[in-house]
Amino acid sequence: MQPIQATNYSVYFNQDCYTFLDSFLEENNYSKLFILVDSNTNENCLPHFLSLVATEIVIEIIEIESGEAHKNIESCIQLWESLTELGGDRKSLIINVGGGVITDIGGFVASTFKRGIDFINVPTTLLGMVDASIGGKNGVDLGNLKNQIGVINSPKAVLIDTIYLETLPQNEMRSGLAEMLKHGLIFDKEYWTKFNDLGNLSSDDLDDLIYQSVEIKNAIVMQDPTENGIRKALNFGHTLGHAIESYFLENPLKTTLLHGEAIAVGMILESFISMKKELITLDEYLEIKTTINSIFERVVFDENDLDPIIDLLIHDKKNEYGTIQFALLDGIGKIKLNQQADNKLITAAFDDYKT
User: Fold this and answer.
1) Is 217 considered catalytic here?
2) How do residues 136-189 score in pLDDT, each as one tens digit?
């Protein structure tokens, strides 16, 4: 697979990752190499990664607890302190080996330590490969509010080795599929249709789908790196999806949802809103709803859940002047930005989701 050229960096695949990395480390005189992992990737992914890295640079491993609950400023403080204690300086390099939490927080810590040091992302989850590690967004949550603190700053490279997917449970694989489905819905109808029958996909097919998904996201990001226009398309399903994810994260009576599980619900809800605004047809909506529900388990909502979820929408980063902004479908494969929906329509979307 040919590398994909992004703004200021490239995305490499499989064996090319390590060929690039060895040359990059040889060419750059880094003082120290820090590898950030969580408790899962330390055990399941780091040994493979280290076995393929050839360098004389001193390597320090820094581990944090896994999970969205640890993507916060408190973890950043611990990481900044660890970097300081271990002798990190302006010429250090951080390599983030993990899922979206690791690449998000690792990129943010690197971008702010000593006013910014270099970093490389090595995503080990499907979600990280097709979404979190691509596009230069780095950040952490503020309490239960998703990605409220952060910066846009490019890594030196993104290294995607699909062998790491063998370490994932099925729910984590499905979580990544949500973002791939989104890329088809907002950008490429033909790509979307490939997910109508997942049963016949081989591992080679999956590699190709991952590659195409990265191409789609990268094409959008390169047009609008700082999210002033078309990049907002990537938020389809996320306005309601993030509110749902945050609500389930903070509510002790709810089982925490993976990012993709919440976004899958958000895409169905926002497709319903698109239909009601006559941007997609009923048949298109039912196709979307049926396909997503065939992959993801239905999430149960009580009547008491809706008001607090809707209240969380005001914190969405796309909002302008206090108005909630949706990126809605304009037919499958196209998007319409800066759309509004009142609470009555949002409630109707939840009611339809339950049926």
Assistant:
1) yes
2) 999 999 998 889 999 999 999 999 999 999 999 999 999 999 999 999 999 999
Residue (of 123, 127, 244) closest to 183 by Cα position: 127
- Among candidate residues 68, 172, 179, 245, the one labeled active-site is 179
Residues 90 and 117: beta-carbon distance below 8 Å: yes
Query: What domains are defined for the chain?
Result: 4-167 (3.40.50.1970), 170-354 (1.20.1090.10)
Active site annotation includes 115: yes
276 included as an active-site residue? no
Told to judge if 242 belongs to the known catalytic residues of this protein, a careful annotator would answer yes
- 183 catalytic per annotation: no
Among the listed residues 319, 326, 232, the one whose alpha carbon sits nearest the alpha carbon of residue 279: 326
Tell me the C-alpha distance between 294 and 298, whole Å. Answer: 9
Q: Looking at the predicted structure, is the pLDDT value of residue 317 above 60? A: no
pLDDT of residue 198: 73
- Tell me if residue 90 is catalytic: no
| pTM (global) more than 0.90 | yes
Confidence class of residue 133 from pLDDT cuts 50, 70 and 90? very high
